Amino acid sequence: MINANALLEKFLGPNATSQIGQAGSTAKQSLDNVGLGGFGGGAITGGILGLLVGSKKMRKMAGGIVGYGGAAAAGALAYKAYQNWEGGKAVASAPLASQTDVANLDRSFIPGATPAAGGQSFELVMIKAMIAAAKADGHIDVQEQKNLFEQVEKMGLDAESKAFVFDALNQPADMGQLVAAVQGIEQATELYLISRIAIDLDHPAERAYLQALGHRLNLPLDLVAHLEHQVSATEK
Question: What residue segments make up the domains of the chain, in order of their start?
Fold first, then answer.
């Protein structure tokens, strides 16, 4: 059986030391090591998501999330955006996620705490969502995919996890399948945010994909704006 928690952290990057399901001291310490400045400005290195993004163009993106805080930090960004939206805060001045938000992360925003629709692992749905978003512009050609496979082979994944990743990379993106897997606005919010992390808004096809995803997830536009506010603050 795939260890979905471990695979999601491996996908996000090798320095993601927080454990899914432990939205407490471990996750908080991982962010304290770099300060909240670690939420942004660091280059993606090593994770499978980094390979996907790097194959399109090298850029700095959400270093603190994928490099230090892992999925717990991503959950904190989604949770903070949701709190700000629910509280009716103005987007431009809404507070950003901090270490405290990771430490006090609502259980419903911890991947794995609640299964996706049909009982499948929500962590695996998140991985599929990131792959779909990263491939949204159709840029990954046959040679680039071959290079991706070669790099994933070197990551020490177990056979089942490797097969899952290879299958997700091979299959065409299915937004309908992703949306159907979501249970509740919390998962919808987190799926949108993790997809946003994997794309480049400057590319029209990726921007269109994200807009379509938000629409299919029935996310209110002002909630989407709060999610963008949280993610854009991590990008330097």
Answer: 4-232
